[in-house]
Structure formats: C-alpha cells, structure tokens
Amino acid sequence: MAGRFAPRPAVTRTTVRGGEAAVPASRPAPGPAPGTASAPGATTVGRERTYVPPGPLDLGLVLGPLRRGPGDPTFRTAPDGSVWRATRTPAGPGTLRVRAKGTAVHAAAWGRGAEWLLEQLPAMLGDLDDPAAFEPRHRLVAASHRRRAGLRLTRTGLVLENLIPSILEQKVTTDEAYRAWRLLVRKYGEPAPGPCPDRMHVMPDARTWAMIPSWEWHRAGVDDKRASTILRAVRVARRMEEAASMEPGAAMARLELIPGIGPWTSAETIQRSNGAPDAITVGDLHLPRIVGYALAGDRDADDAVMLELLAPYAGQRHRAARFILLGGQVPPRRTPKMPRWDIGRL
After folding, report:
1. Which residues pair with 77 in a beta bridge?
2. What is the pLDDT of residue 32?
3. Which of 271, 327, 44 is nearest to 159 (CA)?
4. Which among 122, 116, 117 has a CA at the least distance from the CA of 104?
5. Residue 82: which H helix or E strand, with range?
6. Using an 8 Å Cβ cutoff, are 324 and 141 in contact?
C-alpha cells in the first residue's frame, strides 16, 4: 500500500495476543463473489464515507482487538484488503466495510445502523486517540513502537458487543471462548445486512441473549457462572451502554457493579468500547509473565510486579502492554497449557 498505510510484518501467534488482524495489502476490489450473502431485503448499494487519518494508521492493528478468533462471524478480512464488521448499533443492525487506499480510508455501510457506523468511523479508527502522548521507556517497547507506528486505539462506542465476549473468555482458553461466541452468534444473531462475506452475523440483541435456554449455553460450552453473568448484564443493557460515554475509570466501575464482572473483564471491555489507553488488564493468566519477562527477565511476575514495571507508563499502560505483546518476547513455557473443559459433552 502507498501513503500512510505501509506493509506490516508477518503476523504470528504472539502478535495476535497484541490485537493484530492480518489484513491483506489493498488492491482493486472485485465484483460480488459467489460466497457473498445479503440479509433479506438488503440492497448492495450502501452509504459511503471517506476518512483521512491525521497520521499513520494500520487497520489490522486498530481493528484487530475487535476480532474474536479466526471464525468470528462479526469480523472478516477480504483479499482486497478490506475489513468487514457486522455490529448492532443503537439504530439497529449494520455492516461496515473499510479499506485503506493511499492516505485515506474508504468506508461503506449497510443496514439500519449504516449512518451511525459512518458517523462513528473516525472514533473507531482511533481519531480520538492520542498516540503522541506515549513515550517509550524501554528498548523493546521503543523498537515495537517504531515498527508499529500505525497503532491507534479503537473506540467503538458499544459496550455489550465487547462485554459479552469478554465474559465468555473468563477462566477458559481463548479457543473455547471463541467457539462459544461463534456458535451463539450464528444461532441467535441475524444475518448481516449488505453484500458481506458469507456467514457474517450481527450479534443478538439484549432480549434475545436473555431468552437463550440453559441447555444452549451448555451446548456452547458456557458454564452457569458465565451465562448468569451475561444474563445479569443484558437485563440492564441500557445502563451498560451508557458506560461508553463515561470516563474509563467510571465506566469500569459501572460494569463492575454486575456480579461476575471484575477488573479483568471491565478492562478488556473498556479498552475497546472507550479506547482507554490506561485500562491495563489485571488478573490475566499470561500478561504479567510476558510483561515481566520482556521488561525485567522475570518469568514469574504477578500483577503487582507488572504494575510496578508499567508505572513509568502511567496513563498509557494498556498501550504499553500492547507494544510489549507485539514485540513478541515471551517467556519459555514451563507449565502445561490450561486444560480444556468441554461441558457440552459432560
């Protein structure tokens, strides 16, 4: 790609932990392929908008955290370099396609939520973020920062679409959580509007989440504790969505009023919905050891050590953690992987 959208390094499993989606280099878009689908009554003509970012922007880095696994029915990348998102906006379901070309991002949207998505496009692409506020203070962070100049923090303005998959990720492997999200969205969501890639779905609305029977949670591998937490959250969906317009600390406190939502889940949500640069994830199984090893050679760092190491990045600790994860320096594995428990087979 030309202009601000430079080629990126190859994506590895380690960099994926830093929230990077592999987006092919931009090239002319073909006509609708046989594998595309539209919701009933949808038109292939969508609303459009062009956005010119104020500096370097990497779509894979900015939008990557919104992808919940390679089979996420709400997120796709296409061979022409475009990124597709199917989402439930305050105005209704919508599909958004963004594609970088030259120094601009071209976007098209379909569905009742199309206008809302295009209005929110700059914020979603990090326009409200301030990368210049970050100052690397470690060699590894500086190197990662230099290589990933296009990293900006997304701000979707949507809480539930980030909160629910974060709850699903509590205390299980990411593969298990991604499977549950994929199965539930495909079964209870609705086909995404517009000429989107096949099998894209918009996540269910709050009422539909609340009506999912207990055995379907079980079949998706979701235990009663996580299912109950989601049910408590969707019953106060309006109050949850209000957190998107709050300061990050207050927003996290609002989410944590729900039993079953703690600092880990609230941080993972607010990082995406509010674009919070300091919302560092605590209580994670891997992050403290990765940060400890990358910055101090400590393979056994806990949250307290991680927070101490990240203290020089106060106000920017989440951004610092992302650069550390993208740097790819992780401690060698000394313990078995977290076991998988498929409760759907019990």
Report:
1. 83
2. 46
3. 271
4. 122
5. strand 82-89
6. yes
Within a domain: 268: no
Residues whose CB is less than 8 angstroms from the CB of residue 13 and which lie 6 or more positions away in sequence, other chains included: none
Q: β-pairing, 82-89 with 104-110?
A: unpaired
| Distance (Å) of CA 71 to CA 175, 183, 198 | 10, 10, 12
What is the percentage of the chain residues whose pLDDT exceeds 70? 86
Q: Let me know how long the chain is.
A: 346
In a domain, 142, yes or no: no
| Closest-CA residue to 56 (of 97, 22, 5) | 5
Number of structural domains (the chain) is 1
C-alpha dihedral sign at 10, 16, 19, 23: positive
**Going by C-beta distance under 8 Å and a sequence separation of 6 or more, which residues neighbour residue 332?**
299
Give pTM, 2 decimals.
0.88
The answer to the question of residue 215 being in a domain is yes
Tokens of 191: 């086909």
Quote the CA–CA distance of 55 and 218 in Å, as a whole number: 46
Cβ-contact 69, 76 below 8 angstroms: no
Q: What is the CATH number of the domain that holds 243?
A: 1.10.340.30
Residue 31 has pLDDT above 70, yes or no: no
Rg, Å, the chain Cα set: 19
Residue of 274, 305, 300 lying closest to 289 (CA atoms)? 300
Which DSSP symbol is given to 172? Answer: S
The yes-or-no verdict on residue 36 having pLDDT over 50 is: no
Residue 203 lies in a domain: yes
| pLDDT computed for residue 15 by the predictor | 43
Which structural domain range is residue 240 located in? 160-260
At 20, the pLDDT band (50, 70, 90 cuts) reads confident
Are the C-beta atoms of residues 298 and 305 closer than 8 Å to each other? yes
